[in-house]
Design brief:
Elements: E1 11-15, H1 19-30, E2 34-38, H2 42-50, E3 54-55, E4 66-71, H3 84-91, E5 95-97, H4 99-107, E6 113-117, H5 122-135, E7 139-144, E8 160-165, H6 168-172, E9 181-184, H7 192-195, H8 198-210, E10 214-218, H9 222-231, E11 236-241, E12 248-252, E13 255-260, E14 263-269, H10 279-292, H11 299-307, E15 317-322, E16 325-329, H12 336-343, E17 349-354, E18 356-357, E19 372-378, H13 382-389, E20 395-399, H14 401-414, E21 429-432, E22 436-437, H15 445-464
Length: about 475
Amino acid sequence: MIAARSHAHQDTGVFGLARSGLASVRALKAGGARVYAWDDKESARIAAEAEGATVLPWRDWPWTKLKALILSPGVPLTHPKPHDIVVKAGENKVEVIGDVELFAREMKGKAPVIAITGTNGKSTTTALTGHILEACGFDAQIGGNIGKPVLELAPPGPKTIYVLEVSSYQIDLTPGLKPDVGVLSNITPDHIDRHGSLENYAAVKARLIENAAAAVIGIDDAQTKAIFTRMGAKQATAVSVGKVLGRGVFVLDGVLYDSQGGRANKIMDLREATHLPGSHNWQNAALAYAATRPYARDARAAASAIADFPGLAHRIEDVGRIGRLRFVNDSKATNADAAERALVCFDGIYWIAGGRAKEGGIEPLAKHFGRIRKAYLIGEAAKDFAQTLDGKVAYEISGTLDAAVASAARDASRDGVASAGGDGSAAPVVLLSPACASFDQFRDFEHRGDAFRAAVAKLAMREAS
């Protein structure tokens, strides 16, 4: 744990007591702060009280004495309108920040920080960046929006490098983070309800990158290319899949190149990285390689680490086979753009989709509907998705994930269609790639992916008995 000593002897409020909120309570108490906390869930309040916080409804906090409000990233800061607690903080001139800002204030100059953001690919890029650093002898502490909350990471040692996935919600609450390396994967429409417009969303992402000492930017979409152009090649390293760069890191026909001073050096054939299939994963690998280049100076060691990367849970993750039938967990795909990255990997798909829909729904995926044998729709988006699929793809409204898994497995087992899998084998595929947020039926995408894995395991036990 990292103690938040910057708030020693100060009255500080923590609102929202999920993983990062409880971590903030612990860090603040360890740093000597007086902590007031609240969450609508009784179990969360009990946990915070056990950590030494004074648990009171937030309206009863001593607002005239509070120095800061540590806000959960899930609580609206600006759009669609500020939460009432944010308004209250403003009325009392109380600073509103998040747990990553507490981390940033403690870490200044103590250890390098690589901060990774973007619409899609940031989790895989973060995990792969840490994997490369660990293979090269560093103590990579990986957390933030993936895995452990930042304040639960270990204090810095001589070879520590912090590798953080940072969401747009977290950036909004982190004015003081100035990473040693900032990484931006891509920007496509997402979380517009929380930022008001695509331009606002892109500006939040850009702020993290522009505050970094060095930047790595994927330049294959209009928004990120504009950010790179504004910063210039002296400040940022360009990364592309499909474009030859005179200076930067690029992938051409599956081969990763590092181009400096007009000379492109071949680093590796990314098709050897069996757990990083598809061009989207090639971008993740190129970004991770570029991010670690200032530290992992042995390109061969970096290439070896990329090749043996085991993959990321909930992202095009094989979770089991029943006979020839293959089950793939892509619960991390919380929007259409992310789901597309899984759909292009397979043919003859039995697709489980739905949840709480994002703007645009699944209409952008229409060009891939020919890959789908049948769709199984769950959650709040089921009826809207059914309208999009009607007359184009066979579907049923399953409602729940358990029902969808059972129906998809039944139908796929009766169908002789073969699908070219990422590992080269032929197998029908039941693919959970929801193209939706999970919050209508699950705590988060991880809970949803775990539920899918459990449903597959139940089916396998039934088949074996």
